[in-house]
Design goal:
The chain is of the alpha/beta class. The chain contains eleven helices and ten strands. The structure holds 5'-O-[(R)-(carboxyoxy)(hydroxy)phosphoryl]adenosine (KG4) and zinc ion (ZN).
């Protein structure tokens, strides 16, 4: 059995987790998270220096909690792992400094993990409540990465080999959810809020039995017809802005006036439909061209139930032989368990010499605001 202590501080969650690999299967022993969303909510986004200060305040408490819940002592830890890129530099530095100190003080090997590969490898973690071993996921694998900072289609021939076959040309889809929520007067983070309103509208529509309800606006599906696997969400967000401004003018509502619930629900539904339409269409097209054995969803937007359902259903219809996986419940959003899982699988594949070198990584590990998955491919 190997056990890792993993740390994640790339954005607004201070997270520490203990993950073990036992008979091949990845098990989360503890997953401690201190979220700062309420601190950043008034600003409508994450403020880097505030995030760093908060990580610094909470890190030791979260670390202690992760160790206590897992009932583990430093002697039982084989490896330290930390997110070192991409992310907000002041925030990343808190996590990497903690990890380097522990590695040096406890004399443990250290691995720096890419945040997005962590999100992808969350799919290899066995669910907390079942016995299934998910490390069997078959390659080649196609990952639809959907987070606040990234929207990518990543093709993996084998473990740790990343080919970005398509990505957003402007905003990430999670960022667009957040911005649309702001236009509609919904709180940050916007993704779960938009999803809730969209769900209400979908139910009302179903109950009405009608094809279309009055006042419905059809939003564009940017780049849906383009032959490549790229995305664009900025235009979709702007279309919501223009439609909202037109609505305000029509009903003589000022900027400060709240929008009626019926408009917010309809717009949230239409935005969710449009963005999921583009995401699934491109993923299915990539599935057709690359013929992967497995498709996985990764990143915070993978918590979106409608996206999960739509993609699962379409893949089952079009390519029933392809497996489809999601991260276990609670591991879609930022967490340290995904970083630990990725580190354990990387560790397994390292040579004895690389394992020895990992004991001195604490001297040289650097943080990067931007680092492409392709730069860390094996
Ligand atoms: O992966 P993540 O936790 O952080 C980044 O790495 O960016 O993703 C956060 C993003 C936010 O934009 C948030 O609004 C979005 O994920 N999100 C959702 C849902 N839950 C979180 N978007 C749509 N539907 C959701 N249910
Ligand atoms: Zn993330």
């Amino acid at each position: 059995m190997s056990t890792v202590l993993a740390i994640e501080t790339s954005c607004d969650e201070t997270a520490v987790s203990i993950v073990s690999q036992e008979n091949g299967s990845l098990r989360v022993q503890s997953n401690a998270i201190s979220s700062q969303v309420h601190l950043h909510a008034p600003y409508g986004g994450v403020v880097p220096n505030l995030a760093a200060r908060e990580h610094n305040k909470n890190m030791n408490l979260v670390l202690q909690e992760a160790l206590n819940i897992a009932r583990i002592t430093p002697d039982e830890i084989d490896l330290i792992a930390v997110t070192h890129a991409p992310g907000l530099i002041p925030a990343l530095l808190v996590g990497t400094t903690t990890a380097k100190t522990l590695s040096w003080f406890w004399n443990k090997p250290l691995l720096g993990i890419h945040h997005i590969e962590g999100h992808i490898y969350a799919n290899f973690i066995s669910s907390l409540d079942t016995d299934n071993d998910k490390t069997f996921l078959k390659f080649p694998l196609l990952a639809l990465v959907v987070s606040g900072g990234h929207t990518q289609l990543v093709y993996m021939k084998k473990h740790f080999h990343y080919e970005i076959i398509g990505e957003t040309q402007d905003d990430a889809v999670g960022e667009a959810f957040d911005k649309v929520a702001r236009i509609l007067g919904l709180p940050y983070p916007g993704g779960p809020e938009i999803a809730k309103k969209a769900h209400l509208y979908r139910e009302k529509r179903k109950a009405s039995g009608k094809e279309m309800l009055s006042g419905e606006i059809l939003l564009p599906r940017p780049m849906i017809g383009s032959k490549n696997f790229h995305f664009s969400f900025s235009g979709l967000k702007t279309a919501v802005l223009y439609a909202t401004q037109t609505y305000r003018k029509k009903y003589t509502l000022e900027e400060k006036d709240p929008l009626p619930e019926s408009f917010i629900e309809m717009m949230s539904w239409q935005f969710e439909e449009a963005s999921i339409d583009v995401l699934t269409t491109k993923t299915l097209r990539a599935l057709d061209q690359y013929q992967p054995k497995t498709v996985v969803l990764a990143g915070g937007v993978s918590a979106n139930i409608h996206l999960q359902k739509t993609l699962r259903q379409k893949i089952a219809e079009i390519s029933p032989q392809t497996d489809f996986f999601l991260p276990p419940l609670g591991l879609s959003l930022d967490n340290a368990a995904m970083i630990g899982a990725c580190a354990l699988l990387r560790w397994e594949k390292m040579s004895p010499q690389e394992k020895t070198q990992a004991r001195s990584i604490w001297k040289s590990l650097e943080t990067y605001a931007n680092l492409s998955l392709t730069e860390i491919s094996l």
